[in-house]
Write a structure and sequence with these properties.
Elements (H helix, E strand, L loop, with lengths): L1 H10 L1 H7 L3 E3 L10 E14 L2 E16 L2 H15 L4 E3 L2 E14 L10 E12 L1
Helix pairs in contact: 2-3
C-alpha cells in the first residue's frame, strides 16, 4: 500500500510540480530540500465481514506537508488533499476504496521566520485492498 500511495501522489501533476520526487516514508532525510512530504502509517487493522476477513484494511496515514513558508506548505497540502479526499482509484494493482481527511496546521521550532519549517498535517483514514 505504501509504495502504491507514494506512486499515486507523485503521478499527480499538482503534487509533482511542487515537490518533484521529495515524498518520503517516516522521515525526511537531513538537509533534504523543501517543500516535501513525509508520510507514516499511524495504525492499520483488517476489515472483517460476517464471513471473516474481507481482504480490505483500514489504515490511518499521516501525510505531513513541509514548506519553508506557511503558504508553500498550504499549497502542497491542497495539492495532496484534492486527489485523495473522498476518492477511489487503483494504483500498482492496489485498490483504494475511500479516503477520509482530518487536517491541522503546525510549525516546527525556530527562533526566526527564516529558521522555521511550516507543516500542514493531513490524516487520512484509508480503506484499501491488502
Amino acid at each position: 500500500m505504501e509504495e502504491a500511495l507514494r506512486a499515486y501522489l507523485l503521478a499527480q501533476s499538482g503534487v509533482s510540480s511542487v515537490i518533484t520526487d521529495r515524498a518520503y516514508w517516516n522521515m525526511r532525510p537531513q538537509g533534504a530540500a523543501l517543500p516535501a512530504l513525509v508520510m507514516q502509517v499511524i495504525d492499520r487493522s483488517p476489515a472483517y465481514a460476517m464471513d471473516g476477513n474481507s481482504a480490505l484494511a483500514e489504515t490511518r496515514v499521516q501525510i505531513d506537508c513541509y514548506g519553508p513558508s506557511y503558504s508553500s506548505a498550504k499549497i502542497l497540502a491542497r495539492a495532496v488533499r484534492d486527489p485523495l479526499d473522498g476518492k477511489r482509484f487503483t494504483q500498482s494493482s492496489i485498490r483504494f476504496e475511500a479516503f477520509r481527511l482530518d487536517e491541522r496546521d503546525l510549525s516546527e521550532a525556530g527562533t526566526t521566520e527564516g529558521e522555521r519549517i511550516h507543516r500542514i498535517s493531513l490524516d487520512f483514514q484509508i480503506w484499501h485492498q491488502e
